[in-house]
From TrEMBL:
Residues in coiled coil: none
Superkingdom assignment: Eukaryota
Protein's name in the database: Sucrose-phosphatase
Gene3D superfamilies, A to Z: 3.10.450.50, 3.90.1070.10, HAD superfamily/HAD-like (3.40.50.1000)
The Sucrose-phosphatase C-terminal domain, residue ranges: 326-426
Reaction equations catalysed: sucrose 6(F)-phosphate + H2O = sucrose + phosphate
Similarity section: Belongs to the sucrose phosphatase family.
E.C. numbers: 3.1.3.24
Cofactor requirements of the protein: Mg(2+)
Stored InterPro entries: HAD-like_sf, HAD-SF_hydro_IIB, HAD_sf, NTF2-like_dom_sf, SPP-like_dom, SPP_C, Sucrose_Phosphatase, Sucrose_phosphatase_pln/cyn
Amino acid sequence: MPSALTLPFLRYHIPISSPFSLPRCSSTTTAAVSQGDSTLRKTMDRLAGNAHLMIVSDLDHTMVDHHDPENLSLLRFNALWEANYRNNSLLVFSTGRSPTLYKELRKEKPMINPDITILSVGTEITYGNSMVPDDGWVEFLNQKWDRNIVSEETRKFTELTLQSETEQRPHKVSFYVQKDKAQDIMKSLSVSLKERGLDVKIIYSGGMDLDILPQGAGKGQALAYLHKRFKAEGKLPKNTLVCGDSGNDAELFTIPDVHGVMVSNAQEELLQWYSANAKDNRKIIHATERCAAGIIQAIGHFNLGPSTSPRDVMDLSDSKMDKFDPAYEVVKFYLFYERWRRAEIENSDRYLANLKAVCCKSGKFVHPSGIEQLLHDCVSSLRTCYGDKQGKQFRVWVDQVLIEQIGSDSWLAKFKKWEQSGEERLADYKVEFVEDRWFKFSWDPKDKASLRSL
Ligand code: GLC
Ligand code: MG
């Protein structure tokens, strides 16, 4: 494997300057930094202790399968995460996409919200749903970086085609280049940019994309930075699983102590990197399953926690859990709702009666606007919509199912409900955010009611 490609991955180092000693910034930067910092703090504080699992996953062809029009593996992952991990773990998306293309993907695919989003090949780190940037990271990346010089030097290579404007970012210059030309160009470019005084990292991905970044950037470096920040707070996740399919993901697998999964459909350049650099590392597997199904497979393989998605459980009433888990109940409820409307379960009053039997008569859905609806009424109204989405592209998923214990045997579940609906044609659908919802639950161990609302 030519050194131009392997070099950046081998030269992994954790920055020891500004990002970890943020206060020495100018007053404007300090204000911005503290906004990023406070959002990170909220993320950390949401968990009672150290995260049980931190998943750091690439999106295109890893979490998201562009060859699966039904998005089934992504939906399976979502249900698994919300039912079992959301309340004790951290989800990090790490993508090559810019914020613009990332937001487009979110409109197209049934995705849940991550805690942290790393964009533009590890050059932008953002926290929370509002994607507050980590300015300490930005400042660190300014070292030995000048994108004007990169533009000047790359203009000399006619084989390089500039990617769209949205993908040109403050610390990332991106091109398309043919596979057979890539290695030579990368070698010449690293020489010429070095001569101009820059310290850059050149990464080739997907057999077509060439990114030029500051040496300290990249998906791996961004993860190392996050680990360091969590460690500084005594909140280093107990386990980290990194997931990827292409060249820009290779660095993720070099971070100490992480488990890693290359999904079955991984690109040649990542598999070659693995054979040359990491094939004796037993913490890295090449899954036999594609995309998100490969991630689920890795969770099981490394024993990182539950690995059966509620979507793979056909009889939802047959819960084997001996402990009441409100998050699991919310996921199950909406899976039932989806299957009912898609007519994937029998049209039987028995199901509705069962649902009612486990809800208190006074049970309520509470909308954050204050509007309330009796659970029994909601269940009754299901009778009229049985099968109305049969044969259609209709999916429901819940997102950020956060549980708060409000009494010795009662909980408040807050979550977002999403729907994807469309007509018979598979590609013709839209992803819609439907609403924030709250459920109030109580748990009566005597009759093992599974969905009981206050
Ligand atoms: C994404 C980005 C693109 C980048 C590629 C590989 O597709 O949009 O700019 O080159 O990832 O990192
Ligand atoms: Mg990818």
